[in-house]
Structures are given as structure tokens and as C-alpha cells.
Amino acid sequence: MSSSSSPKSTDLPRGTWDSHVHVVDEEAFPLAKDHAFRPKKATLEDLLKFEAQLGTDHVCLVAVSVYDTDNNLLLQSLGHLKGKGRAVVSIDPETISEQELDEMHALGVRGIRINLKSTSQNKSKKELITTLRSYVQRIHRLKWAIQLHIGLADIEKIASEVPNLGVPVVIDHLATPEKTLAPRLQPGYAECLDLLSKKQVWIKLSGIYRFAELPELDSYVREILRVAPTQVVWASDWPHTGGVAANPQGDRLALQEYRIFDISTFVAQCKQWCEEDEGLIQKIFVDNPRKLWQYEEED
After folding, report:
1. Nearest to 44 by CA among 70, 76, 91, 84
2. What is the DSSP-derived secondary structure letter of residue 173?
3. Which of 19, 183, 199, 242 has the fewest CB atoms within 10 Å, i.e. the most exposed one?
């Protein structure tokens, strides 16, 4: 970080969290047999180099879909962070044991991820609520979060159930709105903003390259920050997977390059969305993730 009295647009506050990153190492930990795409290696060492250049102090490792419910690489990486990080895993609520959950918790796991977007699932309202409840039964005692990679329209389906779940609910990537229509005109927008304003969900300011051409993106982000300044956490989404759409010639077995994303520009853009308000910047980069990920150590 800069030592000058006037912080640069890319300087980050002390104690900054990157609340959504992945690790991939097919050589050491084979991908799931039915993986939908095949990303290149992106190890913890690579991640820590990226974070050192960026100037963050903490990361939250998030289960990536190509490993399905195999969390071995993620947990190994979390262990190497020696208590300075957190993780969100992918589990089968029907088969995982209480002992496994307790061991994950001791390492620093604080959430599970339900990923409908990467796996192209379109669940009905009934199916989605049933799925949520099945996970809550397993994680409620641990006070873990349920992290949802779903579309904005899916929030309309679950809005009435979210207040009853009794665990934190986190929405990935600004709820991944459809690319071609302003969010305020999309199903789920009103419900998303209502849940945020009532502090019933959290949302990640991340992954905007997934919908870079979205009309009224600036207005959407600013409105979220206005109604829910305590419910937004920032994330880089490193290493920026391309998903199924980026499969070379449509081949899911072909090794896939990561997206090129200017993280410094994104940091500067996020600060602009915060109107350069140091208090709000402190919230989304430091205070909010500390609360969400249950991190109480001093930086």
C-alpha cells in the first residue's frame, strides 16, 4: 500500500478480504469425472502472489464446480493459511458426517455453496426451497452461511423462505443478472433489494465481467450499496474461470485459459461506486467480511 497521505484509487485498507477465490490443481487433485469445463492450474502459491500484489490480507476460498463435492484441495489450501483465511465448501447434505463438518469448521470453513449457474440447473421454487432446507438442517448448529450462485430471477423464488432459514445467506456475483436488460426491470430485483435492505442476505461485489454489457450496471451497484452498506463484501473472483461458454471448440475436456481481467481497474471502479467514501470502503473490504466469515482476530 502507498505510504502517502492521499491514497491511490487502487490502495486497499488494512485487513482487506478477498471474499471469493478458487484453487485448481488437476495434477494433485483430479477433477470430478463429469466436470463441465477444465481450467488450468491455479494453486495457492499462485493465489498468494496475486493477493500480495493486490494488497489484501485475507481470502475466502470457495468451492469451484469442477471439483463437485471433493474439497480436498480447498481444505489443504485452507490449512496452509494458518487461520488467516476462511472457506466455503461444496457438500452432499445426505452423506457428509457430523465429524467431517466439525473438522472443516476447525480449519476455518464457514459456509457451503449451492451452485446452479455453473451447472446450468433451473430449479422450481419448490425444488429450490427444499434444497435450501436440506442444507440448513446440516449446518445450522455451526452457524455457517449458505452461499448461492444463482440468477437474479431465482431470488424471486426463495425470497419468502430466506428469513426463515436461520443462517446467513450470501448471493454470489451481484446475483448474476441477465446481460441484456437493466436489473431493475428483471424478475427478482425488487426481492433482492428488499432482502438486502432488511439485512436478510449478503451479496458479493464480484464477477462483473460475467455481465460486462449489462445496462445500468452502475446504477444497480450504487443502489445496492445505498440500501445495504453493511451487507456487501468485495471479491476478485480470481482466477477468473470462463465456465462452459469458454470451452475450446465446445470441448469440456480441453484445457481452458482464464479470463483476462484488470483487477486494479475493478478496485478503482468499486471505490468510485462507493463515492470514495472511506467508511463505506472500509465496510465492503474489511468490516463486512470479518462479520460474515466470523473472523475476530486483530490485523
Report:
1. 76
2. G
3. 199
pLDDT band at residue 10 under the 50/70/90 scheme: confident
Q: Which residue has 441477465 as its cell numbers? A: 178
List pLDDT tens digits, range 238-262: 999 998 888 899 999 999 999 999 9
Report the percentage of the chain scoring pLDDT > 90.
Answer: 92
Residue 154 cell numbers, joined: 431465482
Separation CA 119–CA 244 (nearest Å) = 9
What is the dihedral angle through the alpha carbons of 283, 102, 23, 71, rounded to the nearest 10 degrees?
A: -140
Grid coordinates of 34? 463429469
Query: Which parts of the chain fold into alpha helices (H)?
Result: 44-54, 72-80, 98-107, 125-139, 152-158, 189-197, 217-227, 263-273, 278-282, 288-292
